[in-house]
Specification:
By secondary structure, this protein is mainly beta. The chain is built from three helices and 18 strands. The longest helix is centred in the first third of the chain and has 11 residues. The radius of gyration is 18 Å and the shape is globular.
């Protein structure tokens, strides 16, 4: 049976909507706060988004179904759902405020998973040293630069990130600094944010490529 062109296009667009990564960031009753490809979703048990269906949730973990298999998500630990990565052609990132009113996102740096928080007060993307080592950044060849922190001046290192990806949006050649401390998140500072026009409406933040 032949399918019309609009039907084929719809099928293709739906296939492209399936998630690549997901993490569990908290719960509220029978609802789970999931971050799917960098976008925050509050799902009730039985609901689905981007091919991810919530089966159950408690304080520490959420059970989801994806591609016919069950996956257990531990809080704060992103899971790669096994989809093949494609070149990011998107132009807009949409984030929903999480706990404390901060905007969090899961994504990647140079193709490796990273967890981000938007920080408009940071001059540059800032990466803790343990994350920089995990990401394979060759920061030690850069001359140290003084950085002011709450604990005084510490040496940091400038690096160039080949790519920063959130959802289906790729941003290339992003300047960053590596700080000699562990950080829970990579700070999305202004060397990334100035590539976008920013529009906040209540608990929603939209970043659109300039």
């Amino acid at each position: 049976m032949r399918r019309s062109l609009p039907t084929l296009l719809l099928a293709a667009s739906c296939a492209g909507a399936f998630a690549q990564s997901v993490s569990f960031n908290g719960s509220m009753g029978d609802k789970a706060l999931l971050v799917i490809d960098g976008q925050t979703r509050m799902l009730a048990v039985g609901a689905a988004a981007q091919g991810v269906k919530l089966l159950g949730v408690n304080h520490d973990e959420a059970r989801v179904e994806y591609g016919g298999r069950a996956v257990v998500l531990r809080q704060g630990s992103p899971v790669n759902l096994g989809g093949a990565a494609t070149a990011g052609s998107g132009r807009e990132i949409v984030l929903t405020a999480g706990m404390g009113g901060h905007f969090f996102a899961n994504g990647s740096i140079n193709g490796k998973a990273a967890r981000f928080v938007v920080d408009t007060g940071a001059t540059a993307v800032a990466i803790g040293q343990p994350d920089a080592d995990r990401l394979g950044l060759d920061y030690r060849r850069s001359p140290p630069i003084p950085m002011g922190t709450a604990n005084g001046v510490v040496p940091g290192y400038r690096v160039m990130l080949n790519s920063v990806r959130i959802g289906d949006v790729d941003t290339f050649n992003v300047q960053a600094v590596v700080v000699p401390a562990a950080m829970e998140y990579v700070l999305l500072g202004n060397t990334f944010l100035t590539r976008f026009s920013m529009n906040r409406d209540s608990d929603t933040l939209r970043l659109e490529k300039r």
